[in-house]
Structures are given as structure tokens and as C-alpha cells.
Write a structure and sequence with these properties.
This protein folds into 2 domains: 3-56, no CATH class; 61-297, no CATH class. A hairpin with a 5-residue loop joins strand 1 (3-9) and strand 2 (15-22). Helix 2 (80-89) crosses helix 5 (173-181). The protein has helices at residues 39-56, 80-89, 117-124, 128-140, 173-181, 188-195, 225-232, 238-250, 286-297; strands spanning 3-9, 15-22, 27-30, 61-65, 104-106, 112-114, 144-147, 150-153, 158-159, 168-172, 252-255, 258-261, 263-266, 272-275, 280-281. By secondary structure, the protein is α+β, with helices and mostly antiparallel strands. It has a 4-stranded antiparallel beta sheet. A 3-stranded antiparallel beta sheet has the order 1-2-3, with no helix packed on it. It has a two-stranded antiparallel sheet with strand order 5-6. The termini are far apart.
């Protein structure tokens, strides 16, 4: 009787199911120990373990759902500045195996406490008028809910823990917070505009391109500065394009005590942008991601 062993991993790299199948009887037998992994399973487990270690150094991550090759939140009528505020606020949600998507803060002894309206305003660093407009914008678009004095973000967009989204990226907690806190309220619109480009990120290299799932690097159709301007609805005039480029390059994030750009521009004749993978990243090959970071941001 032939038996096959199956391992099922969650997004943190932990084995969530171990089982064998008896082909002749087509019956499933749960087992406690697995003696040997296939090479593919070993690679998967190594990558998941590396991702876990890497993400722990960045405060963990949130899964964010999106539609490929469609500007982030383009189907909703929300203010650009509020896009950056919403993504930043998502780094405060609770795990989906506890009180799913509840906005929380740490209390005494690291005890989780649900955020009050005032807590959220303080975290967002907004004055009363801007904060009221933010809350209305989020509630009107079903992105934030208030239930019995507790505040939750939409589980259709954000998730912390096991992910069931078909298309998603990881939003790393510490770097996203640093990015937001490093901008003024006037720059939140620019940051929101920049983050709208996330659905165009190549899954592995974080290069902005038209075919983000393409595995052959030579076949990636990279977005030029004009392509990005067209996506964002910016006029393709020389002076405006120059301003857009400078604006994207002005956004900074702190990585291990070093200030790095959110976007790295690779000049003509190549003419394309790469987004810093320490902030947002979808891939699974951590070693390759670190190589890209070294090449583009530390070269």
C-alpha cells in the first residue's frame, strides 16, 4: 500500500497540518512526526522561516488586499491623504484569531487594550478637523467600523495572521509607522498617492511594472515615469514630471538607523522605479529580496 506525506504550512512557516494518504483506500491518516521532507517542502519551510525572522525585525506585518494593476482604492471616493492614514492605522489591528481587526494599543504589562477615538486621533497625529474628516471618509466607505465604542478596520482589506486574500502584499509594521511619522500632515496626500502604486509592484523584486507576476526578469514591462504619471492622473509635462520624480524620491524611511528612500529611481535609458521592500513586499524568497535591497538602496 503506497502512502504519501503532506505538510501544510501557514504564512508564518509553521506546519498547521501533517497527514499521510493511503492511495489504495484513499483514506487520510493524521500523524505526529514526519521523517523526511521533499526538496520543495524544505525550500518552502526555509523561506517561511527566513520570512518569519525577517519580519520580526520589522515589527511583523499586515496583509493588505488589492486588485492587480489597479490603482489602490481607485474604486472608492476617498481623500488621497486618508489612504496613507488608513494603511498606517492598519498596523494597529489585532490578529484575526483573536478580536479580528480591532484597533488595539499596549497597556500595562503589554496587555492589549482597544483604542478609543482619542487614541486613534493621537496615533494619526491629526487635529480635530482633519481627524473628523478622516473618520467620516472611512465610515462612509465601510473601511472603518465602530461597534459599542470599539473601532475595527475592514477585514476585506486588511488581515493580521492567516491570510485568505487572493491578491495581497505585506505591510511591515515598524517601517510603515516610521514612514508615516516622518511626513507632515501636508505630505500625507503625496504618501497616499505613492502608496496607490502598490498593485503594480513585481511580486519578487518590487519593481513597478505592468506585469507584476512575470517570473522571467527579462520580460518585465517596467513602468516609466510617464507611465506612473498617467496612472496617477498627472500631466506628462516636463516640469510636472520632474516634480513628480522629486516628490517620490523625497519620501524616506529609517532602516536600522539609516535613512533610505521609499522609491529608488533608475535613470534613463532604463527609466523605472523600485519600492523599498522593507516597507511593502509580497514575495517569498527573502534572500533574493535582500539582494535587491542591497543592489538598489545600498549600492
Amino acid at each position: 500500500m503506497e502512502r504519501q506525506t503532506l505538510l501544510v504550512f501557514d504564512d508564518t512557516g509553521q506546519v498547521v497540518e501533517e497527514s499521510t494518504f493511503c492511495k489504495q483506500k484513499n483514506e487520510k491518516i493524521n500523524i505526529k512526526l514526519v521523517k523526511e521532507l521533499t526538496p520543495k517542502q524544505k525550500r518552502l519551510l526555509t523561506n517561511k522561516s527566513e520570512l518569519t525572522l525577517h519580519s520580526e525585525g520589522l515589527g511583523g506585518y499586515i496583509h493588505m488586499n488589492y486588485t492587480e494593476n489597479t490603482k489602490l482604492f481607485s474604486e472608492l471616493n476617498i481623500d488621497l491623504a486618508n489612504i496613507s492614514r488608513l494603511i498606517y492605522l492598519s498596523t494597529y489591528i489585532d490578529y484575526n484569531n483573536r478580536e479580528e481587526n480591532l484597533l488595539v494599543k499596549n497597556g500595562q504589562g503589554n496587555r492589549r487594550i482597544s483604542m478609543t477615538r482619542k487614541d486613534i486621533q493621537n496615533v494619526l497625529l491629526l487635529k480635530d478637523t482633519a481627524f473628523k474628516a478622516f473618520l467620516k471618509d472611512m465610515k462612509d466607505n465601510n473601511l472603518l467600523f465602530e461597534v459599542e465604542g470599539k473601532f475595527y478596520l475592514s477585514p476585506c482589506i486588511f488581515s493580521k495572521g492567516k491570510c485568505n486574500f487572493e491578491e495581497y502584499t505585506r505591510v511591515f509594521v515598524d517601517t510603515t509607522r516610521d514612514l508615516y511619522r516622518g511626513t507632515t500632515s501636508r505630505q500625507h496626500k503625496l504618501l497616499g498617492q505613492a502608496l496607490q502604486l502598490i498593485p503594480y509592484l513585481h511580486f519578487d523584486s518590487n519593481v513597478l511594472c505592468k506585469n507584476p507576476k512575470e517570473q522571467d526578469y527579462t520580460k518585465r514591462e517596467k513602468l516609466t515615469l510617464e507611465d506612473i504619471a498617467n496612472i496617477l492622473g498627472v500631466k506628462c509635462e516636463k516640469s510636472i514630471l520632474s516634480k513628480l520624480k522629486k516628490s517620490l524620491e523625497s519620501l524616506k524611511v529609517n532602516i536600522n538607523g539609516q535613512e533610505l528612500p521609499l522609491f529608488k529611481y533608475v535613470p534613463k535609458p532604463y527609466d523605472y522605479f523600485v519600492l523599498n521592500s522593507y516597507v511593502v513586499w509580497k514575495g517569498n524568497d527573502v534572500a533574493k529580496m535582500k539582494e535587491n535591497i542591497q543592489f538598489y538602496f545600498f549600492s
